[in-house]
Amino acid sequence: MNAVHEPWAVAADTQVLRFITAGSVDDGKSTLIGRLLFDSKGVFADQLEAISRSKYKRVQADEPDLALLTDGLEAEREQGITIDVAYRYFATPRRKFIVADAPGHEQYTRNMVTGASTAQAAIILIDASRARDGKLLAQTRRHSALAALLGIRHIVVAVNKMDLIDWEQGAFERIRASYADLAAKLGIDEFHIVPISALKGDNVVQPSASTPWYEGPPLLTLLEELPIADQALHGPARFFVQWVIRHGGDSKDDFRGYAGQVASGTLRAGDEIKVLPSGIAARVARLISFDRDVEEARAGDSITLVLDRDVDVSRGDLIAPADDDLRIASAFEAEVCWLDQQALNPARQYWLKQGTRLTKARIRGVHSRRDIHELQHADSAESLEMNDIGRISLSTRDALALDSYASVGATGAFILIDTATHQTAAAGMIL
Ligand SMILES: Nc1nc2c(ncn2[C@@H]2O[C@H](COP(=O)(O)OP(=O)(O)OP(=O)(O)O)[C@@H](O)[C@H]2O)c(=O)[nH]1
């Protein structure tokens, strides 16, 4: 995949906003991201030249086809759909942006979930020419439901292709009213909505002369102004052990450390911790980053942790503050989004992966399935099919340390993997 070069020539302490784009096929996601990159000068001249020569070009000869900046793979160009999550980077003097370009095709809800798990904002694209009467597509409902479920803080609805409906204010207002209904059903308290043309550039980076009735800022200004609070940095400390590092055997300078990434919060040398699920207590003796000791490590840092005593710790164990009240259980309920073409099957065994912990799991019951049109929980579901969202109960071979997804995203989320096909079967959130 061709990476777009990172225009990181902005102050190092500039805030980063991670967002995803979601919409149906052809709503214009690729064009929009291309426009954001292009108009914010994130595009290098040689790439622009390559695009204007491309055989895949789909627009008029004198305009670059902005979708080609983001539709990376040859194969997907040939299919005309985006088939993988691609991360793009761009920056303005006010903020850096990382965008996961989550594809819109029905069967790729999986990728939206992947991209959404670390996003602070979601841009939900609506094609104005298809939603002119105010009727929203099932995809818009599903992606919005997922965004709400994944706890994405900011929802920005971009009503695209307004140029195709002559910037009709009435249509925009109908779409706004329908979205407000949907948001209320999903418990989304607040959303932003902007009338745009990704192709022409109206209200993307520059305000548009075609929308005198729109009082809000262009999309990029909105993205620059969304408040960012990094939940992971401020949450309780969570560290999944990825590797146990041991050398020296029984000699005096026997070394034993636990390598991994801090998933949430901050760990400091001297902290009283416990190892879960066993509950064994210890104190952090050292934190080693690459080859030197550090006093503290924060969410996102990769470190090796050394404890003050010899305790039994293995890969997949969770390290948390000693006084934290985590639930230890091998049976629990969760909300899942089913991602596999093979429907949920209680007779099958699944791998459950939570952080670096991998254990076998079975599905004991399906309590409800959300109807994608009503978005209410319909009772008496027997199974979940691809793209369904539902509530299930699970049991696992090993006990797990559980956080609710709403309180700690890093430990409250898990995936299920089909043990026979090795496909990711579902993304789950602990309730
Ligand atoms: N008139 C008009 N056409 C647009 C606009 N935005 C995108 N398009 C066109 O709509 C088509 C689809 O745009 P893409 O950006 O490829 O759509 P996408 O949502 O990324 O689609 P996939 O990559 O297939 O998921 C292309 O022909 C674009 O040129 C717009 O604002 N106005």
Pick out its properties.
431 residues, alpha+beta, Rossmann fold, Elongation Factor Tu (Ef-tu), domain 3, six-stranded mixed sheet, 19% helix, disordered N terminus
Any chance you could write out the topology, listing elements then pairs?
Elements lengths: L15 E7 L6 H11 L5 H9 L13 H4 L3 H6 L6 E6 L4 E6 L7 H8 L4 E7 L10 H12 L4 E7 L8 H18 L4 E5 L23 H7 L5 H4 L3 E3 L2 E5 L7 E10 L1 E3 L3 E5 L3 E10 L2 E3 L1 E3 L3 E6 L10 E4 L5 E12 L11 E5 L2 E14 L6 E3 L9 E14 L6 H4 E6 L5 E7 L1
Parallel strand pairs: 1-3, 1-4, 4-5, 5-6
Antiparallel strand pairs: 2-3, 7-9, 7-16, 8-9, 9-15, 10-14, 11-12, 11-16, 12-13, 12-15, 17-21, 17-23, 18-19, 18-22, 19-20, 19-21, 22-23
Bound molecules: guanosine-5'-triphosphate.
EC number: 2.7.7.4
Pfam family, one: GTP_EFTU
GO molecular function, one term: GTP binding
Q: What is the number of E strands?
A: 23
**What's the name of the CATH homologous superfamily of the largest domain?**
P-loop containing nucleotide triphosphate hydrolases
The strands making up the biggest β-sheet line up spatially as 2-3-1-4-5-6
Task: Write the CATH fold name of the largest domain.
Answer: Rossmann fold
Contiguous uncertain segments of 5+ residues: 1-12, 71-83
Heteromolecules bound: guanosine-5'-triphosphate
Characterize the largest beta sheet: strand count, sense, and whether it forms a barrel: 6 strands, mixed
What's the CATH architecture name of the largest domain?
Answer: 3-Layer(aba) Sandwich
Residues in helices, as a percent range: 10-25%
Q: What's the gyration radius in Å?
A: 24 Å
